[in-house]
Write a structure and sequence with these properties.
The chain is mainly beta. It has helices at 98-111, 148-151, 180-189, and strands spanning 40-45, 48-53, 60-66, 75-81, 86-92, 117-126, 129-136, 139-146, 152-156, 159-163, 169-172. It is elongated, with a radius of gyration of 19 Å.
Length: 190
């Protein structure tokens, strides 16, 4: 299996692409504000996550953004208000109450829905695109990629992320865990 080292050596002056559903804060805070888990209350109101801090009367709509989504998915979460301004940083989900942790996990699960590829069933060239048929942890699906070398990121040793033409990510958690045919199909395209 070829090594994918060339994918993670990016120049620091080249901006990284992120999924369209994960915008950076509109105005990051200029100071490092750690939110105290004991002083927070979280709830779901319909499709929205809301927060109340330190006995405030008003609930505010917020969203959570993982600062280290692959290496520390339950730690270091930016809390953004409805305008995209950073409210502060939540250091660890485990420090929240059970109900608050459930509301936060629900928000993160909705926001970071990333299917894990378990098998590659087919990969066919279609004009300047590749059509993938894969089996994921959420069932069989098809997606299209273009310029595959640019759309495959080595996010950790032996772990890849494929990005389709719509900006959706598909995770290959372990190259070693793929069956030989899946590895062969992947090797042909990268």
């Amino acid at each position: 299996m070829p090594h994918f080292h060339h994918h993670h050596h990016q120049r620091s002056d080249v901006p990284r692409q992120s999924a369209p559903s994960l915008p950076p804060p509109t105005r990051p805070s200029t100071e490092y504000i750690l939110l105290e888990p004991a002083a927070l209350e979280l709830r779901r109101e319909g499709e929205r996550l809301q927060i109340r801090q330190g006995g405030e009367r008003e609930w505010r709509e917020v969203t959570l953004v993982r600062l280290f989504p692959l290496t520390e998915p339950d730690r270091w979460l930016a809390v953004l208000d409805a305008e995209g301004n950073e409210v502060g940083i939540l250091r660890d989900l485990a420090k929240l109450s059970k109900d608050d942790r459930g509301a936060a996990r629900d928000e993160l699960d909705r926001r970071y829905l990333v299917p894990r590829i378990q098998r590659i069933l087919a990969c066919r060239a279609r004009f300047d695109l590749l059509e993938w048929t894969v089996e994921t942890d959420r069932g069989e699906t098809k997606f299209l990629t273009r310029h595959l070398r640019e759309q495959v990121k080595e996010v950790a040793p032996e772990r890849l992320s494929l990005i389709d033409v719509e900006g959706n990510r598909y995770d290959v958690p372990s190259l070693d865990a793929l069956d030989p045919e899946s590895r062969r199909l992947l090797e042909q395209r990268v």
